[in-house]
Amino acid sequence: MAAISRLTKPSSLSSFPRLWRSITTTTTTAQSPPSTLSRRSDLSSRSTQWVFLGCPGVGKGTYASRLSKLLGVPHIATGDLVRHELSSSGPLSTQLADIVNKGQLVSDEIIISLLSKRLEVGETKGESGFILDGFPRTIRQAEILEGVTDIGLVVNLRLPEQALIEKCLGRRVCNQCGKNFNVATIDIKGENGKPGISMAPLSPPAQCASKMITRADDTEEVVKERLRVYSEMSQPLEEFYRSRGKLLEFDLPGGIPESWPKLLEVLNLDEQEEKLTATA
Ligand code: ADP
């Protein structure tokens, strides 16, 4: 797969937060995307820079996190950055709670500022590359990202809507370690030539079992609004990346045991995982 072979270039992201900052300060009032050429040439060598797209509940976090461990790059989820800001009772938290709990998107400026700060922290730790989950979510965010990075691959995870709703409603999070689990048993019959889909619950280990919480935005009403907002604001990103030859569509065949090996296979990473498992 041509897109895959571009992904493992050596890199330093050292100038990324600085460039990002300069771009965001110039674009907060501008309507059109910044010119990318001079910045792109500063950032010619890179390691994995991937994006995960997909509706709420599809499992972006699960698969992005597994791949980040395999590829040795950070998994950066903007939803986590937003929830961290919410729990910090900082100046933005009341404003953010109102938006997030209605299933709406936070403004591009706020989300870019949170992401930029996260990248700066990563820079000080010597991080290189990333797997982004939940960003970009608007065409404007994608244009800004395109101006400061060279995204190698965009993985678009897909599940039927019924599964997405059941997965969001069944999601539980450990309030200590932050890991996601799921109490839903999904069993959707195949129809019109499409295969059925089954997913077993993802139960927490003993140390997390008593610490399960439900996200405030995982109620049926808010989940449906998040799906609506996704199809309006984020679905156009599929065409944005498809037209650039970067989109990999992946229909999840089931839960993690069926989906993870298939995903590794289409990413040509199955051998890499075998080596890692053998040396662990
Ligand atoms: P989901 O499960 O809907 O994919 P996330 O955990 O990614 O949710 O994000 C939670 C919330 O954080 C979103 O509903 C939105 O309010 C906000 N958020 C996260 N990423 C972005 C983004 N890139 N742009 C705007 N808002 C965002």
What does this 3D model show about the protein?
It is built from 14 helices and ten strands. It is α/β, with parallel strands linked by helices. Residues 1-16 and 22-45 have low confidence and may be disordered. It is globular, with a radius of gyration of 19 Å. The protein has a domain at 47-158 and 221-256: P-loop containing nucleotide triphosphate hydrolases (Rossmann fold, 3-Layer(aba) Sandwich).
What is this structure's SSE topology?
Blueprint: H1 2-5, H2 16-27, H3 37-42, E1 49-53, H4 60-71, E2 75-77, H5 78-87, H6 93-100, H7 108-124, E3 130-133, H8 139-148, E4 153-158, H9 161-170, E5 171-174, E6 180-182, E7 186-188, E8 197-199, H10 206-209, E9 212-213, H11 220-234, H12 236-242, E10 247-251, H13 256-266, H14 270-279
Parallel strand pairs: 1-3, 1-4, 2-3, 4-10
Antiparallel strand pairs: 5-6, 5-9, 7-8
Helix pairs in contact: 2-7, 2-8, 5-6, 5-7
Adenosine-5'-diphosphate binds next to α5 and α6.
